[in-house]
Write a structure and sequence with these properties.
alpha/beta, Rossmann fold, Arc Repressor Mutant, subunit A, five-stranded parallel sheet, 26 helices, about 30% helix, about 20% strand
Length: about 900
């Protein structure tokens, strides 16, 4: 359907300019604010119903507050039509909200106020916490009374819900439109809606089309299935849900299976939709799939799919494949937040299957969920071994107390969900087969030691009164999920070494928690750690950075945490890091080296890493940033010019040799970090050798160069990648090597366009930064960043690995810089170092076919200085001569004389 333009002409020609601009901006904003509310995969019959409904809203004709009710039986498509209407007209309203599944959410402990809070969040774009429902009513009235709102209230089944969310028309501004979907027409009459649209079942044409999309993945049946398709559609009664479920169930089956299904539904009364839907349940492959369906119908609707999968797998139900089958058969849905959903009719059908097996004796049913039945069983202590799951959800403020002995005979109890319940007596009565314990408002200071927990897969004790978790810790090898959120008295985390397979740890909003046990580093299988709003937590144990499996770390709201260690890069699986509203003032530099992080929210930077990392790096460069200044930047870029640097003659090299044994011991100690040595400046180094000995206290790469800088005012070697480099040394061009291009600027950042050099290929890249010695600290060189703006890539290299690249890594860097690319190279130093000038050298070699003819009798083109455990050695790389053992002055002098004779 084509989208409508809704920018009207300015109604009053006498408006001033400001009002006119504001009016236009508002309307354009509405148009640009696209809503991606998903309606349905196959919108058969949706457009015709939307076209009938929208005129009832009188959007352009009336400024009154108007209420529209959409009424019909379950599964007829009320929510689908409401979504389609909302998506069609939402751009006419700047303020809007779609509140889905109100009936189901209302039953949750905090469901009432959470709906009010969502309404205000959707419209005001800010979070408003409600202490109670009456306060929420007043706030909605006060905050929205002047706003023109589009509001959809989906699946309302009581007047209390309407009174809490739209008590009267005076709560909203003129022009407001409110759409209410419900199965109970009396609610609409009592609330005085202006119009009621009664949902119609699908006609034969629409029914056959919708059924065909699910049964054949096309808009009409196959010819050989046409007759039987029409018969099955006839029995669906035009109900979209039934058509979808039956079509999905029959998809891919043969004609004989279709005939069998048809025979089944013929004996089911036409008006009993639930029994028609049961055909899909009966057609499930085995008992495990049926058990999964029944467990979800009774206990797990609205829960995270991954959590439910873990719990049901612990029950031996193979939930990974089972849940997928239920989704394929349209018996279950999974939304974009990975939450499990089930249509009311399907849920009720599943629960009816359980009830029918023992209609008069609830204690003999496999699952108990109906509050009255559960209360009777617990009070009368009539539970039996037939009970596999039990849920009793009272208000969290309730103090209803039962005897633990009521569970004595429930030997097969796998699933236990409680809220607002207390148990007196020995916890040993609880089943040893328990896999899921969900107890909101757990009333004890710790979990009793006589409670057998070794088979538990998930422990969820939200809003508990726990001070610590276990007094005597049991080894819980099967435990995958531990959720103690909103435990406001919790002061200590457990010893995690007893939970070897834990995958999800949630300690959200535990305000008295001051320390996380160092044993958290033992969680080798952990995937998620959520410490949000642990306001007393001051730091994380260093061991947490050893977690190789962790994917999500949430620290938002930990207002006392002021530091993340550089070790965070060791968390090689970390994809999501959330640390808003903390005391952190700087982003760890190592974070941008992470190859795994996808989403980050930290120190004001939020978004996908590919978008955020450049701004993080830029913040480090900004002199106004409150982070430590790693960079001094410059916007000046020079043209490339021929390199002219001083070079050492053979005579100088010869004179240097006698000093090499004196510095050999120093150099050997540095060899793991020192992968470079600049020969042209050796005379200056040796000339001031006594001074160097006094200064040389550190053997790091950066500090060694620092001492050279004290003499030569130059730092060399932040990055040299050369296929000729050898361990313990670096390669430098000899006198006959002309293929150098340089770029330089003030500060630590150089931006340049890589040039094309005819018949030459880029071989290596060298970076030199200069400064005065007074500015240098022992921390020295930290990292080098190579940013390719043309290719939108960033490469980061540590100082200790810059000269120890594998061939593949070297090739990746050099090949990433191509002629015409705009590139920036940034040198990163420790605190206190201020770069004065930075120069980038691009070193080229002749391409294949144009190699230089090397003269073995002439001076070497390339000199490499290397250090090993035995001797300092020099060799001619290009001529592949074997290194001599030490410097033999006589041999060098003799060669020089022979060379002169030949020239003469």
């Amino acid at each position: 359907m084509a989208e409508r333009s809704t920018i009207p002409t300015i109604p009053n020609a006498e408006w001033n300019e400001t009002e006119a601009i504001d009016h236009i901006v508002e309307k354009v904003t509405i148009l640009l604010d696209k809503t991606d509310l998903f309606v349905v995969d196959n919108p058969v019959g949706v457009k015709s119903r939307v076209d009938k409904t929208i005129p009832l809203l009188k959007i352009q004709q009336s400024n009154d507050v108007l209420l529209l009710g959409i009424w019909g039986m379950g599964g007829i498509g009320k929510t689908t039509i409401a979504k389609a209407i909302y998506k069609e007209i939402c751009r006419n309203f700047r303020d809007r909200s779609f509140l889905a599944n109100i009936r189901e959410r209302w039953e949750h402990i905090d469901g009432k106020v959470s709906l009010q809070e969502q309404l205000l969040l959707d419209i005001l774009k800010t979070t408003t916490e409600m202490p109670n429902i009456d306060s929420g009513k007043n706030t909605i009235k006060d905050m929205l009374c002047n706003k023109r709102v589009l509001l959809v209230l989906d699946d309302v089944d009581s007047l209390d819900q309407l009174n809490a969310l739209c008590g009267s028309r005076e709560w909203f501004g003129s022009g407001t439109r409110i759409i209410i979907t419900t199965k109970d027409k009396r609610i609409l009459g009592a609330n005085g809606v202006d119009k009621v649209y009664m949902m119609e079942t699908m006609d034969d044409s629409e029914s056959i089309e919708l059924f065909s999309w699910h049964a054949f993945k096309q808009d009409r049946p196959r010819d050989d299935f046409l007759k039987i398709s029409k018969e099955i559609v006839h029995y669906s009664g035009g109900l979209p849900l039934a058509l979808t479920v039956l079509g999905s169930y029959l998809f891919g089956n043969g004609i004989a299976d279709w005939m069998c299904v048809l025979e089944k539904i013929k004996i089911i009364p036409k008006d009993e939709v639930q029994r028609k839907l049961k055909v899909s349940y009966d057609g499930l492959n085995d008992d495990t799939e049926k058990d999964i369906f029944l467990d979800i119908a009774c206990f797990f609707i609205g829960m995270d799919r991954n959590d439910v999968t873990q719990i049901l797998n612990g029950c031996g139900l193979f939930a990974n494949i089972g849940i997928s089958v239920l989704v394929e058969r349209s018996l279950l849905t999974v939304d974009d937040k990975n939450t499990l959903g089930m249509h009311d009719l399907l849920r009720d059908m599943g629960r009816e299957i359980i009830r029918e097996k023992s209609p008069r004796d609830p204690e003999d049913r496999s699952r108990l969920w109906f509050q009255e039945d559960v209360l009777n069983v617990l009070f009368e202590k009539t539970g039996t071994k037939a009970v596999e799951g039990l849920a009793l959800k009272l208000p969290i403020t309730s103090s209803k107390c039962f005897s633990a002995e009521s569970f004595e005979k429930m030997e097969r109890l796998r699933l236990l969900q409680l809220a607002g319940v207390q148990l007196d007596g020995d916890f040993e009565y609880l089943s040893r087969k328990l896999r899921w314990l969900c107890w909101k408002g757990f009333p004890l200071p710790f979990i009793p030691s006589n409670f057998y927990q070794r088979n538990l897969v998930s422990i969820e004790l939200e809003n508990s009164k726990m001070i610590f978790v276990w007094k005597e810790t049991q080894r819980l090898a099967k435990l995958k999920i531990l959720n103690l959120s909103h435990s406001h008295y919790l002061m200590h985390t457990p010893d995690f070494s007893y939970l070897p397979n834990l995958e999800k740890l949630v300690l959200k909003d535990c305000p008295m928690l001051t320390e996380v046990s160092h044993t958290i580093g033992d969680l080798g299988e952990i995937l998620l750690i959520d410490l949000e709003d642990c306001v007393s937590l001051r730091s994380l144990p260093r061991s947490i950075y050893k977690l190789k499996s962790l994917k999500t770390l949430i620290l938002s709201g930990c207002i006392m945490i002021d530091k993340l260690e550089e070790d965070i890069e060791q968390m090689e699986s970390l994809t999501t890091l959330l640390a808003d509203n903390t005391a952190l003032t700087r982003v760890p530099f190592s974070i941008v080296r992470s190859k795994s992080i996808v989403y980050i929210s930290l120190c004001g930077h939020e978004g996908f890493s590919r978008d955020v990392f450049p701004s993080i790096i830029k913040s480090w460069m900004s002199p106004t940033n409150n982070l430590p200044s790693y960079f001094q930047t410059s916007t000046i870029m020079s043209s490339h010019v021929p390199l002219d640097v001083p070079r050492s003659s053979s005579q100088e090299l010869s004179s240097i040799s006698k000093y090499l044994p004196s510095i050999r011991s120093l150099w050997v100690k540095c060899s793991s970090d020192l992968q470079l040595f600049w020969m042209p400046y050796m005379p200056q180094i040796l000339k001031n050798w006594n001074q160097l000995q006094l200064k040389f206290h550190s053997f790091s790469l950066a500090h060694f160069i620092v001492n050279i800088v004290g003499l030569s005012n130059v730092i060399l070697g932040s990055l040299i990648l050369d296929k000729y480099s050898m361990r313990g040394g670096c390669v430098l061009p000899g006198d006959s090597y002309p293929n150098w291009l340089s770029f330089n600027c003030d500060g630590s950042s150089v931006i340049f366009n890589a040039p094309q050099v005819e018949e030459h290929n880029l071989k290596s890249l060298m970076c030199i930064a200069s400064s005065t010695a007074d500015n240098i600290t022992p921390d020295g060189l930290k990292n080098v960043l190579v940013k390719n703006y043309t290719k939108a890539t960033i490469q980061i290299y540590k100082s200790e690995t810059l000269a120890s690249f594998k061939d593949e890594e070297k090739q990746n860097l050099v090949s990433s810089v191509e002629p015409g690319n705009k590139v920036e190279v940034v040198v990163v130093f420790g605190d206190g170092f201020i770069a004065k000038e930075t120069t980038i050298y691009l070193i080229y070699e002749e391409s294949v076919g144009k190699k230089l003819e090397l003269n073995r009798e002439s001076d070497s083109n390339i000199i490499a200085v290397g250090v090993d455990e035995n001797e300092c050695s020099v060799k001619s790389i290009c001529t592949q001569e074997e290194p001599t053992e030490g410097f033999n002055q006589n041999k060098m002098k003799k060669k020089k004389e022979e060379k002169k004779k030949k020239k003469n």
